[in-house]
Design brief:
Elements (H helix, E strand, L loop, with lengths): L23 E3 L5 E3 L7 H28 L5 H24 L6 H7 L5 H10 L3 H4 L11 H20 L5 H16 L9 H14 L9 H28 L1
Antiparallel strand pairs: 1-2
């Protein structure tokens, strides 16, 4: 008898979440109450449709992260799918918060007793795919060191120029810092404890706690420019040391 394939062998096997998902709510006495969408007003049905879709996005991210951990999905496909889901999540979360349906994602997960530790880390803590945060060099990702250096340098310069040109909205700045982080993680030979990686990761966590429309204040812009400049200088020294050591 043939063995069954692993649970996450093919992410495409994950069934799509139905739009009319019925959520279950738990009262303060621990009693489970099923929320029917058929007996509510159109406004209430819209609310629960939105909550059901939000629930489905979070669960799908949990499945995706499990697939990544089990090496059941390729790096590029994971990055693409995760980026799309994060964008959908942020749009849905913003709408639900602005309409007063939820306080925040953490409270929503607790209220509906969701067991989604990986989704929490990806969506609530970092807000970027794991491939942006973690280094992974293999034959499929390898590019020449010269190209790595050029692309990383360009990302640093682009981010610093954008801030100097007074781009301050989170949804404008966060992708630039994410690009810097991604390029640093693809640089072969970069020390594991490279301070620039830690600094950019900290900024990504900060951005993920803000709304897309939020604006960085003068102090934040000054600090971010300083951190980028220090990290860029350290990266340049790394390139010089690597060249002398080769």
């Amino acid at each position: 008898m043939a063995a069954s394939p692993p649970a996450y062998a093919d992410l495409q096997q994950i069934p799509p979440q139905p739009r009319q998902t019925v959520l279950r709510e738990y009262s303060s006495f621990g009693e489970e109450e099923e929320l029917s969408l058929h007996n509510n007003t159109p406004k209430e049905r819209k609310k629960w449709d939105q909550l059901a879709e939000f629930f489905a996005i979070i669960k799908t991210v949990e499945h995706l992260e499990n697939a990544r951990i089990k090496n059941a999905i390729g790096r590029d496909e994971y990055t693409s799918r995760c980026s799309d889901l994060i964008a959908q999540f942020k749009d849905a979360e913003s709408t639900l918060v602005s309409e007063g349906h939820i306080t925040n994602t953490s409270a929503f997960i607790v209220e509906f007793q969701m067991d989604v530790p990986y989704a929490m880390e990806r969506l609530v803590k970092y807000g970027v795919p794991a491939t942006v945060l973690h280094r992974n060099h293999d034959e499929h990702d390898a590019i020449s060191r010269a190209r790595q250096a050029a692309e990383t340098t360009q990302c640093f310069i682009t981010a610093m120029d954008a801030l100097k040109l007074d781009q301050r909205a989170v949804d404008e700045v966060q992708p630039l810092i994410s690009d810097v982080m991604d390029r640093l993680n693809k640089c072969e030979g970069l020390p594991e404890g490279f301070e620039g990686v830690k600094t950019m990761r900290a900024w990504l966590i900060t951005f993920n706690g803000l709304r897309a429309s939020d604006q960085l204040d003068d102090e934040q812009v000054r600090q971010l420019l300083h951190d980028l400049d220090v990290s860029y200088s350290a990266f340049f020294r790394f390139l010089g040391d690597s060249k002398r050591g080769s």
